[in-house]
Amino acid sequence: MFDWKQHAPSIVPRQGARTALERPFEARFLGGLTARAPDRVEGRPLEAFREAAEPVIPAIWRCLRRFGVRPDELDDALQTVLVGLFRNWERLSSFSPEALRSYACCASVGVARDVGRSRSRTTRRFEPLSLQEDLQLEAADDDPETRAQQREALTILEAVLKRMPDELRDIFVLHVIEQLSKRELASHLGIPEGTAASRIRRAREEFARALSEVEQPSKGTSP
């Protein structure tokens, strides 16, 4: 049985990739806002938001990617999440760093779905991750064999997520991979805790089912 928690590493944009994460912080989200002063936007201080939001950007990026947002859509999607955080900053400014990360990850669900709906119906619903295209392994091991195993594990994980219904995939990513609690899911997604618990259970079952489909061809059959 594939142990994703042990073998599937986190993903981040590779060095040199042209993504929103490389540009100055303001450039990632100010396009959706009107700046009246260098240090204030819509009357809110920018520096405080920058300090709080920058650490959660990698988690937002991972969620968007695993929710099916394609590389060419990431800049706009990430900006949309950041703009949403900033517009609600009067309330969110009191959140702890971990609570803000949880909120941002859940906010990424709606943004990713909006991106998917606006995408042409003739394109693929989900484009598998390509490490060569725009990703690298986080805290990657220098050992070539270990690197190869990590890449294979990530490929399997993404193939499994691709086979899951969107709602269950999102719950699996948020709860199992990003480690959001049942209470956080209920609060940020606006659902009862009982519903969150039920979706977590179904998501785990669906992951196991999809994983068996992915692993079966590689096992082959004996003559």
TrEMBL record:
Residues 57-121 form the RNA polymerase sigma-70 region domain. Residues 156-205 form the RNA polymerase sigma factor 70 region 4 type domain. GO terms for molecular function: DNA binding; sigma factor activity. It holds the Pfam family Sigma70_r2. One of its GO terms (biological process) is DNA-templated transcription initiation. Keywords: DNA-binding, Sigma factor, Transcription, Transcription regulation. Belongs to the sigma-70 factor family. ECF subfamily. This is RNA polymerase sigma factor RpoE. It comes from Labilithrix luteola.
